Structure to design on (749 residues):
């Protein structure tokens, strides 16, 4: 649940970078003959909108209208009462509230001559809202625009990377602290909350899982400004052979996470270690771009052969379902470079070594 | 008659724990849903849970699910199946045992779900949160079952979930205890110089230590200029600020909210007058509650207090119209607002909160969650309704 700090700070991301992000999308729209794009988000996932505007949809739903030229407009079901705050924390000047997206879209575009409207990643929108938009714009061509914003976010800017590094140190530290010996699962979660939210994160999700041999899994996913970080650790794992094996598998996968590597490459690198896990375990190795961590990559259509791009920040995870039904995971967030991966969340483990 | 929860009431809730109580609750739910399905001519209900609306999945599975998309397939007869996009959900879904099977789901290729649906040969399926079903999944369902009629079952499940059983109320009382602890933590940390987001961090840590799964929280600090609450900001507290919050922890799936305001230092006369006005409105709302009352009636009772004191305009859409909302597996169930004729039966749970702006002291936040009883309402939280204040770090 998003209830943390939202900040628009030109010292962190300068105004011209925000403008350039929107301008790049607008150039794309002009080249494709699309008059206006609509980008949908809800309280669970609205990172494309945040990437263009820094808006946080802390409740309900919203839609960003990006014309091929001119100002962007935020359409939302949230009350006008929150407009002043939304203007304060975002680059958006014009915000329209209403009870339905159909009515809001009609009000925004209904007076204009019919043209082409593009729906960014329409397959992920609620189908009912796609239908509402179509019905609201009779005579308009409605086109799906997969990856319109998301694909542009795959490789981070220098400013984004600086924020991700800051966030990664916090998430890594929180995951490390939460694995203190003998803590209850609730205390582990509380430790993460205090550290991560206290550091000014917008969002944090903590999950604790039971694993064999009394081991506890702690998975931490946090959003710092508009970027996401993820780390997973094991607590009370000193006497567990499989935990060391899983660590070796993650280390191998992270070592393999260089530019051009694929999910298959990572899985192959981790395979020798994973082969030593107890019989009946179901192990997986995967990477998720930090841009998709709000939904853990579950809405990203990605093939195992998709290459890791240089300059991307990704979470590399090795997780296991045990025959008895338990679950454990280890994960780190890394910067992908031509020369290899730079582990951003693993600094505390490195120091411990 | 208004009563307040006490330790004895809370203690009796433990009778609703254990495998037998769980089994009875599950049977009760199945019966309620199947009766509603029969009335609506449904062969199956498909509860869809996007990341921010998982209440219906929880209703059937009684498991904390974290996947971006999850489903429970509940047929008119036969096995109940759960699906989640996140495989770390499977152990919990299976351990709770409320569903007969649990499997992972790929939203781009949901064959495990569509194959199972096809085997049922359904003529009419009700989808809870059909309005939020992503296009790729909606298309997959339509393609796999071309002869099947899909309708929304969102209202059906809302209706089924409105009346809480003793089993559910026991869980909501635990949420109530966490509300109180969360508010204590909130007041404990208030002092000049503290940024809003650090308050949230401390409250979150405290309620998570007590087992809260999640929390919805809005906050605002400042003086008479404050018009509403938002996510926390970097603003640092100053002496004389009123700090407002609605704090909504989730325990065992169930959300409950407490609304309070506290002053950093000694409250002003305007802040006290504001509290008195809002407290009178809360009490009027409570006095209106009885089985069969409507959401409109409860809202109107609160608004009438503002109108009587000459502050009626602050109950309009220009400010804040909502006077509370239902609670349960979703934190924001039926709105308590004039014009909503939804009947609130015995054992419905909702918060009464007349939160809005007035010139007395800016936006004021005050409210208690209540249960509809046979002759009135029961206030579910033990936290006193008063204008709290903190002297920490404030010179006398």
């Amino acid at each position: 649940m998003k209830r943390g700090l939202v900040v628009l700070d030109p010292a962190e991301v300068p105004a011209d970078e925000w403008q350039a992000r929107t301008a790049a999308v607008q150039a794309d729209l002009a080249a494709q003959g699309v008059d206006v794009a609509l980008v949908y988000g809800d309280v669970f996932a609205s990172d494309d909108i945040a990437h263009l505007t820094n808006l946080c949809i802390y409740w309900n739903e919203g839609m960003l209208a990006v014309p091929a030229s001119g100002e962007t407009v935020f359409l939302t079901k949230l009350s006008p009462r929150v407009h002043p705050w939304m203007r304060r924390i975002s680059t958006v000047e014009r915000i329209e509230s209403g009870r339905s997206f159909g009515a809001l879209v009609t009000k925004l575009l209904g007076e204009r001559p019919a043209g082409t409207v593009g729906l960014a990643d329409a397959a992920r929108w609620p189908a009912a809202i796609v239908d509402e938009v179509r019905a609201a714009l009779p005579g308009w061509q409605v086109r799906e625009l997969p990856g319109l914003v998301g694909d542009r976010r795959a490789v981070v800017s220098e400013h984004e990377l600086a924020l991700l590094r800051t966030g990664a140190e916090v998430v890594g530290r929180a995951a490390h602290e939460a694995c203190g010996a003998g803590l209850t699962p609730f205390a582990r979660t509380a430790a993460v909350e205090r550290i991560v939210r206290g550091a000014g994160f917008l969002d944090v999700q903590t999950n604790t899982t039971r694993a064999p041999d009394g081991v506890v899994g702690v998975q931490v996913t946090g959003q710092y400004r508009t970027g996401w970080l993820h780390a997973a650790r094991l607590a009370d794992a000193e006497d567990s052979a499989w935990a060391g094996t899983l660590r070796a598998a993650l280390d191998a996968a992270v070592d393999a996470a260089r530019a051009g590597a694929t999910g298959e490459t990572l899985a192959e690198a981790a395979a020798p270690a994973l082969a030593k896990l107890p019989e009946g375990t179901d192990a997986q190795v995967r990477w998720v771009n930090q841009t998709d961590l709000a939904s853990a990559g579950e809405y990203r259509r990605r093939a195992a052969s998709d290459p890791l791009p240089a300059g991307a920040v990704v979470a590399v995870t090795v997780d296991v379902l045990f025959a008895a039904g338990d679950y454990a995971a280890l994960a780190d967030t890394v910067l992908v470079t031509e020369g290899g991966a730079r582990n951003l969340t693993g600094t505390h483990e490195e120091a411990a070594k | 008659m208004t009563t307040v929860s006490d330790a004895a009431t809370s203690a009796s809730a433990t009778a609703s724990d254990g495998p037998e109580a769980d089994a009875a609750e599950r049977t009760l739910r199945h019966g309620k849903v199947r009766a509603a399905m029969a009335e609506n001519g449904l062969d199956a209900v498909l509860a869809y849970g996007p990341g921010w609306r998982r209440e219906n999945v929880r209703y059937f599975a009684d498991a904390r699910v974290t996947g971006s998309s999850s489903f429970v397939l509940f047929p008119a007869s036969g096995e109940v199946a759960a699906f989640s996009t996140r495989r770390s959900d499977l152990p919990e879904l299976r351990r709770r045992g409320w569903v007969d099977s649990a499997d992972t789901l790929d939203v781009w290729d949901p064959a495990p779900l569509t194959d199972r649906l096809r085997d049922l040969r359904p003529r009419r399926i009700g989808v809870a949160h059909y309005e939020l079903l992503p296009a790729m999944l909606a298309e997959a369902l339509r393609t796999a079952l071309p002869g099947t009629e899909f309708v929304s079952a969102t209202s059906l499940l809302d209706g089924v979930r409105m009346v809480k059983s003793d089993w559910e109320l026991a869980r909501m009382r635990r949420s109530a205890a966490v509300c109180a602890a969360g508010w204590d933590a909130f007041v404990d940390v208030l002092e000049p110089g503290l940024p809003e987001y650090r308050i949230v961090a401390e409250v979150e840590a405290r309620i998570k230590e007590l087992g809260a799964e999640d929390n919805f929280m809005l906050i605002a600090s400042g003086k008479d200029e404050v018009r509403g609450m938002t996510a926390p900001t970097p603003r640092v507290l100053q002496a004389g600020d009123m700090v407002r919050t609605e704090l909504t922890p989730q325990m065992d799936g169930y959300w409950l909210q407490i609304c309070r305001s506290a002053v950093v230092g000694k409250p002003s006369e305007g802040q006290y007058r504001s509290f008195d006005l809002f407290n009178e409105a809360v009490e009027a709302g409570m006095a209106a509650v009885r089985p069969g009352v409507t959401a409109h009636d409860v809202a109107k009772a609160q608004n009438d207090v503002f109108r009587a004191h000459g502050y009626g305009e602050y109950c309009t859409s220009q400010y804040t119209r909502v006077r509370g909302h239902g609670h349960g597996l979703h934190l924001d169930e039926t709105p308590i607002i004039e014009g909503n004729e939804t009947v609130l039966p015995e054992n419905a749970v909702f918060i009464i909160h007349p939160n809005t702006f007035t010139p007395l002291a800016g936006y004021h936040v005050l409210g208690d969650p209540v249960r509809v009883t046979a002759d009135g309402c029961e206030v579910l939280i033990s936290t006193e309704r008063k204008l709290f204040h903190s002297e920490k770090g404030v010179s006398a």
Summary: Chain B touches chain A through 53 residues (CB under 8 Å).
